[in-house]
Design goal:
2 domains; Sodium/glucose cotransporter; 0% strand
Length: 529
Amino acid sequence: MLAVLTFLAFTGMVAVISYFMTRGTDENTSDGYFLGGRSLTAGVIAGSLMLTNLSTEQIVGLNGSSYSEGILVMAWETLAAIAMVVTAVFLLPRYLKGGITTVPQFLEGRYDTFTKTMTSALFLSGYVIVLLPIVLYSGALALVTMFDIPNAMGISHNTALWMTVWGIGIAGSIYAIFGGLKAVAVSDTINAVGLLVGGLLIPIFGLSYIGDGSIGAGMSTLWNSNPEKFKVIGGPDSSIPFYTIFTGMMLVQLFYWGTNQVIIQRALAAKDLKEGQKGLLIAAFLKILGPLIVVLPGIIAFHIFKGNLEIPDQAYPMLVKEVLPIGLIGFFAAVLFGAILSSFNSALNSSVTLFGLDIYKTYMKPDATDKEVVRYGKGFGIILAIGAMFIAPLIQYAPDGLFGYLQEVNGCYSIPILTIIVVGYLTKHVPAIAAKIAMLSGVVLYSISQFVLKPYVFGDDNYLHFLHVMAILFVLNVIIMLIIGQLYPRKEAFVLPYTEKVDITPYPLLYPLGGLVIAIVVASYFYFV
């Protein structure tokens, strides 16, 4: 009963605070609804970035990977910090100068309307087919398993899964569709604080458990008993071979943190460039600490359960059950629920933004008012949310290894989009036809590589790691675009306009603090070699 009351109290507090903090935002305008009135400050941006990224897929999945492979999987966390610095230095100033609401809007000005539409369609297909249902399913599965909902309520596992999926989906839809970005960002910030506290409690209690009440003794025992788990250099057979860090890994990170609408929309909503850059830097420093929450618990679970778990993804929920005091379970459930909710409502809000501005206003009603765009975007969001809630529970019948497979599938759209954005900003004469060819080439060649050549021609064990494939195709498509730019250049050089929607004076400490982030990441690799 105490756990239930704690859960309801924390969740209710987040909802009430979010409501009162967003009452004054005019959500009948595009900027008000989609970008929170371009009013977000550094702390809100950082908190929303962190919680949008951190969900059950990451908490459960990465800890499952560290249970199997050790600390080498921290690359997904620490290298993200470098990508955020690059975004703050290179991409965000250009985004805010152009006053864009969505990334595809830049592509319309740089190339043409159809390029924008292709990009929006790729983003939406990735969100609808992969992101929204997977977030709902993985989140529901974690809650159902960790807190034993079937036994607690006397229902079947399948019924519990459906109920949890719809509970998360409805709550997330209310925030994202009816509250707009500011409600999402504010609730994310509050939940981020809870997640940092709750997430850190798990390794603290875990180390104390190992050390018979002493955290220091627990860490010493863990380190000395499992030295192989603290080697950061991944071998050729690992999920992250060391050399992939210098190829596709950084490209994936730059796409995710610098161009993915779900993530970058928070920085686009900054009140000015200084706040946006500060927000990214704060998030970068926090990301360096991410392995304490999403990597270390998996290694602790390996030690406690002596590597006997048949399914590595059980490591985190089993550890929570084993080490967390009963009085804190309700708080942790609320924090986990907030993390799940954040990823779902953030993806949904971004989908509504892409549809309303890049599809409805462009093709369905070009003269639509801001109020109409918001209204029809909300309608699309409701349909999308309901579809995702119906699809999500069906994922339980999919074959094993689905999540790893879907991570690989994301390369179909991530690298082509990153390619045309980077070339678009770094060149002035590459034409729209080059972007279209590069996008089609990226999608088709990656699909052939991973889903024809890899399984049927060369075999999974003899083929390049998918991160290497991404890097090769990125370079190839950049070359294709540059060649086309030489042969058929734009008639007029592209000039990025300054819309003056926000002040773009840079944050004066950007370079020293950004350099410090990079230095800490590099030092961490030398420490764990």
